[in-house]
Amino acid sequence: MNADKTYYVYILASKKNGVLYISVTNNLYRRMNEHRSEYGKGFPHRYHVTKLVYYEQFSEPYLAICREKAMKKWYRKWKIELIEKNNPEWKDLVSCNGEILSCPVIR
């Protein structure tokens, strides 16, 4: 068990109803900095997907990975509904000083 670790499944968007990207990490702050810097040269960088619009926290990596894999198989409509239920204005959940803002998960 990883009692002192937190794992995150997150969704990035290029803009409202734009390109979506789903991934998992154990350090959301670091990962967002990587996505927004020149370090990231993959899909998010190529499609300008840097806006954090949704995330969930997990205490076990296995649970986070399972959730990520399930969400990646969802229809796009379901992903958009999840975002809009929790973040209807598609606000970037990273503040101007780089802090991760809360995103209440509503299920």
Give your account of this protein's structure.
The protein is an alpha+beta fold and about 110 residues long. It is about 35% helix and about 20% strand. It contains 4 helices and 3 strands; from the N terminus they run E-E-H-H-E-H-H. The protein has helices spanning about 30-35, 45, 60-75, 75-85, and strands at about 5-15, 20-25, 50-60. Strands 2-1-3 form a 3-stranded antiparallel β-sheet, sandwiched between helices. The chain is globular and about 30 Å long. It starts with 6 loop residues before the first strand and ends in a 21-residue tail after the last helix. The mean pLDDT is about 85.
Order of strands side by side in the largest beta sheet? 2-1-3
Provide the gyration radius in Å: 13 Å
Could you estimate the helical fraction of the residues in percent? Answer: 25-40%
Task: Work out the strand percent.
Answer: 15-25%
Q: Total number of helical segments?
A: 4
Number-wise, the strands total 3
Which spans of ≥5 residues are poorly predicted at pLDDT below 50? none
Class based on secondary structure composition and strand pairing:
alpha+beta
Envelope shape: globular
Helix and strand succession? Answer: EEHHEHH
If you average the pLDDT, what whole number results? 86
Biggest beta-sheet profile: 3 strands, antiparallel
The N- to C-terminal Cα distance equals 25 Å
